[in-house]
Known about the structure:
Blueprint: H1 7-18, E1 25-29, H2 33-44, E2 48-52, H3 56-64, E3 68-70
Helix pairs in contact: 1-2
Amino acid sequence: xxxxxxxxxxxxxASKKRGPAPQTPVLVFGGEPIGALIxxxxxxxxxxxxxxxxxxxxxxxxxxxxxxxxxPGVDVSFEVTGMPPRSGS
Length: 89
């Protein structure tokens, strides 16, 4: 596999190659390590980043990094990514 290939490499590489432009609003679903990395890279490039996360530990960690997080405080939320729930998370 070529360097930077695969789902993880493409995500981070897409941010570097194609955008976002400064001041572009970006919404990242999921504050796990890959989502957090993408959010930080986009913010570094000047985008306005909002991260969607419901895990209280991750929310606190992400806010500690200065990221804007939505999730636990909203009245209604729909998760439609098709991923099955993980036990113990």
